[in-house]
């Protein structure tokens, strides 16, 4: 009984200490979403009317019939589903390399994080020039290697434009994942690997049996962050393609921006914000659940 009382006291103390931070998060996240939900119940388009008119859930009904919204949602899903796994695999490979001892390791680690540190808009401009059909270095390299016979209009064809922005995002975001995973790798004692090697385990078996299970918390953190960032991606496709060609790379965030800032439809734009937020929460929850199951499976196999 005394032990239970001590645990309850510790939990109460923890909640008291965390209360200011939780209140701050509530103000930062809950109030804007709540405000957006309230605005979504009104019809207010400054291009046609100045006074808001209560319309209930008409904006959400309109969204269900909006083909442009569903197209932007499809583009966002494809972008997220393709880019995040690529970044996770490449980030793991880079982290494993940077975790080894070799001369100049500190400098290499510094260089590896530069893409993440650069402004996204600046990177987008650079990649747009690299994928330029006439002067871009990507076409020049492919032509010299004989992979293509004529220059490709990377940013002028729907499928190629999506490939271009995914490539740019992978280059930009992979260092972020590699740094998180590197921190996790450095927390794993080397004694585990030495004991496993004595038992006759190969490097791959050590990676599967030791590295992956112990690295699951860092993988989960990296995955959650990247899913959230990729699903809300705005600046990279906005600068590289503007959402084109033919809305092939228009993300949900770009559509929301156009609805509010270009068409001045604040009611419908607010509804788009609310639905996008809920979809983002769902995507993060699915990713977290998936990795939690993998972690539980790995722990059970041990």
Describe the structure.
This protein is mainly α. 76% of the residues lie in helices and 1% in strands. The chain contains 13 helices and two strands; from the N terminus they run αββαααααααααααα. The longest helix has 39 residues. The protein is flat.
Structural features:
mainly alpha, 76% helix, 2 strands, 302 residues
Low-confidence stretches: none
Distance between the termini: 34 Å
> Which whole number gives the mean pLDDT?
87
Strand order of the largest sheet: 1-2
SSE string, helices as H and strands as E: HEEHHHHHHHHHHHH
Question: How would you sum up the global shape?
Answer: flat
Q: Please tally the helical runs, counting DSSP H or I stretches of 4 or more residues.
A: 13
Kindly estimate the percentage of residues that lie in beta strands according to DSSP.
under 5%
Structural class by secondary-structure content: mainly alpha
List how many beta strands DSSP finds. Answer: 2
Please state the CA-atom Rg, rounded to the nearest Å: 24 Å
Largest sheet: 2 strands, antiparallel
* Helicity range: over 70%
What is the secondary structure topology, with strand pairs?
Elements: H1 2-40, E1 42-43, E2 53-54, H2 58-64, H3 67-98, H4 105-112, H5 114-117, H6 120-130, H7 137-145, H8 158-186, H9 190-198, H10 203-231, H11 235-240, H12 252-262, H13 266-301
Antiparallel strand pairs: 1-2
Helix pairs in contact: 1-13, 2-13, 3-8, 3-10, 6-8, 8-10, 10-13, 12-13
């Amino acid at each position: 009984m005394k032990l239970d009382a001590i645990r309850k006291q510790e939990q109460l103390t923890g909640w008291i200490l965390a209360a200011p931070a939780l209140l701050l998060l509530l103000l930062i996240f809950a109030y804007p979403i709540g405000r957006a939900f309230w605005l979504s119940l009104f019809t207010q388009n400054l291009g046609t009317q100045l006074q808001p008119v209560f319309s209930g859930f008409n904006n959400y009904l309109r969204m269900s019939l909006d083909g442009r919204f569903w197209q932007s949602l499809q583009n966002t899903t494809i972008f997220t589903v393709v880019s995040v796994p690529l970044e996770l695999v490449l980030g793991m490979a880079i982290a494993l390399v940077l975790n080894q001892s070799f001369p100049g390791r500190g400098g290499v680690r510094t260089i590896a994080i530069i893409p993440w540190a650069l402004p996204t808009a600046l990177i987008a401009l650079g990649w747009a020039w690299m994928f330029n059909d006439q002067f871009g270095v990507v076409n020049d390299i492919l032509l010299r290697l004989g992979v293509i016979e004529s220059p490709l209009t990377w940013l002028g064809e729907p499928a190629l434009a999506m490939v271009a922005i995914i490539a740019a995002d992978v280059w930009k975001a992979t260092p972020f994942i590699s740094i998180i995973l590197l921190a996790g790798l450095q927390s794993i004692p080397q004694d585990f690997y030495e004991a496993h090697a004595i038992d006759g385990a190969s490097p791959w078996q050590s990676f599967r049996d030791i590295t992956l299970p112990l690295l699951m918390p860092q993988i989960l953190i990296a995955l959650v962050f990247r899913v959230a960032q990729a699903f809300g991606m705005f600046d990279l496709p906005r600068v590289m393609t503007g959402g084109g060609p033919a809305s092939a790379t228009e993300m949900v965030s770009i559509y929301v921006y156009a609805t509010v800032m270009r068409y001045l439809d604040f009611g419908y734009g607010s509804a788009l914000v609310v639905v996008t937020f809920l979809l983002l929460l769902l995507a993060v929850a699915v990713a977290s659940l998936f990795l939690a199951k993998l972690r539980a499976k790995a722990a059970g196999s041990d």
